[in-house]
Structure formats: structure tokens, C-alpha cells
Design a protein that fits this description.
two-stranded antiparallel ribbon; 2 strands; mainly alpha; Phosphohydrolase
Length: 193
Amino acid sequence: MSRPSPPAPGPYLQTVSGRFVNPFDPDPEQLDPHDIARALANVCRFGGHCRPFYSVAQHSVIVSELVEARGGDVEDVFAALMHDASEAYLGDMPHPIKHRSPLGAAFKEAEGHLEGVLRERFAIKSDVPDIKRVDRALLATERRTLSGESWDWPELEGVEALDLELVAWPPDEAERAFLARFDALQARRSAEP
């Protein structure tokens, strides 16, 4: 019995569900919400440089809840949930490296292409300004709570941390929360005319 294999040689990832994804040239049909949820639940924010394990999946759920609390419609809230979905396939690069290094420039190019394919695959609304504002405020909150504030980060100048208590979820809980949020938002999106 032969085992399935990638369609061609190249930088393919085998996902938990058994799909093959080339993050540099992704087949939209291979991008699966369950794979995204599991991978994001296993990816730690801050490149792992935080006291407890704190996942990108939990971060994404919280961003979507905050965008909703600020009056975002279902499309804004869904875009907020999926704003870091590319990290399921590329990993999470710490902000200073991503935004201030040659490696980050190459990463951003690959990330931009993958984000475009994800936007198409899941009909994700682009350019939701509230996501960036909420993401920065949550970053400041996460840093204060989970990492520490021993020196200034230029990207957080003028950004106020939220009055929010963060308790890190284990990966299985983060995966369940992400998928529950994804499914609930998809149901709401389908119900709207």
C-alpha cells in the first residue's frame, strides 16, 4: 500500500489532518480550519520568550472578542480571528525580527502571499483598522502579563495596555476555543443575507 505524498518536490508541510501545504505556493483546498486551529494552539507567542506557554490561537480568539466588543460586525470579527492564520504554516516570528531584519523582510513577503490565499479561501475581509489597534493593545497587555517590561519597545509607544486579566490556556483548550469561535462566526456569516 502506497502512502500519500506531496504533489511535487518542495517545501511541503504535512498537517495534522494529513494535508500537504506549501506555504510559499499554497493550494487553497489544502488550507483547513482544524489544521489552522491545532497549529496556532501549538505556536507560542513572543517566539516562546514568555513565562507561561501562551498560544497564537488564544491571542486570536481574544482579538476577535475585543473587536466584537468594540462594535465590529461579523466580518470584522471573523477577520480578527483569522488575522494570524498564516502563522499556522509559517510560525510566529518575534516582532523585532519580523519588522527590523532582512530575515523579517523575506518572511513578510511569504506571509503576505499566504495571507492573500487565506483571505480568498475563507472570504476574509481585508483592511479592518480595528484589528491593528486591538492587536497592539493586546500585545502591550500580553507583554506586561506574560513576558515583562524591562525595556521600551518602539512599536508600543503610546499604546495603552488593556485592563484585562490573561490566564494562559493549554493548547487543547486554545484549539477548542478557536474552532468554537470559527464555527460560531461561520454560522453567523452564513445566516446573514
